[in-house]
Amino acid sequence: MFADTTAGAGRLGTAREALDLAAYGLRLRTGLTSTALGGRLLAAAAPLLAGTLCGLVALPGDTRYWRVADAARSGFDVPWQQLPDRLALLGLTVVPALLAVAAALGAWRAVRTLAGTVVLLAAVRLGIRLLTANVAPEGPWLTEANVWLLLLDATALLPYLAAGALILAAPADLLERPGRLPVAIGAGTGLLVTRAQGGYDSWHLMDGWTPLLLLLAPLLLLLCAARGRLLPAALGLAVLPLTAWFSLFSLWEQVGGVWRLAPLAVAGATGLLLTGQALATRQVGRAGAA
To answer: Which residue ranges in the chain fall short of pLDDT 50?
Structure first.
């Protein structure tokens, strides 16, 4: 069959067909096809994710706003070493807005291209942070100060990576209609969540129950997928990339280190997985009885 579909297609066509087959095989392995629960959940969450990415925008009063404004004013008039980071910063300001507009209009091919661009820009900024995280250039890299600074910067970039990757993972054949209302809901939710976290700024590290609430609420909504309720689960999936990393960072700060937080995180994740499995088994049992 592969030989028939690639006959006379040339090297580029053959490579494209091979990539398509590999991607489809990966979808089958991961349960992200258009008929599987995971694929349907991602498709339902895609317009919400497009909105939440737009809701990450830096507004006046946010410390990120001044960095964006400074990068826009400077343009190309900066040392070449700083140029990739400045351009990526501006790109992460403009591209998510274009992505939300494309999702609202139902231009899903453009949405996927823009989501890939968001992932690439965030990866560039994260890579630059990894290379420049050493606060003492002549000293060792793996120090507490360097790790803290890198994790802090990563918390503001991982939402772009995660949300963009989830949009790319959604089955294309389920993304056809415009999603104006979900995009608007996602943008509003993303804006509220980002403001609640102080724009991922270290001066606004959340104390008390706030980070735990922002972490558990979307995870609990995700459990609705086990009962076949995709819309609340999709909302939880759309919010989780925005809250997970900064909430974990704030909890890590409160408990006094990664190693103290790790057992709690493993126990919580195990409990949620077992609960989801129990709910899914119960749902299947009810469907079989009916």
So the answer is: 2, 284, 287
Q: Which residue has the tokens 């119960």?
A: 282
Radius of gyration of the chain (CA): 21
Nearest alpha-carbon partner for 163 in 58, 48, 246: 48
Write down the pTM of the prediction: 0.82
With H, G, I as helix, E, B as strand and everything else as coil, classify residue 132.
helix
Could you tell me what percentage of the chain is helix, strand and coil, using 3-state DSSP and rounding each to the nearest 5?
80, 0, 20
Residues 6+ away with beta carbon under 8 Å from 26: 32
Greatest alpha-carbon span in the chain: 69
Structure-token pair, residue 153: 């910067």
- Chain center to CA of 25: 23
In the chain, where are the structural domains located?
31-289
Three-state DSSP class for residue 82: coil
DSSP string, 210-276: HHHHHHHHHHHHHGGGGGT-HHHHHHHHHHHHHHHHHHHHHHHHHHTSHHHHHHHHHHHHHHHHHHH
Supply the pLDDT for residue 272: 63
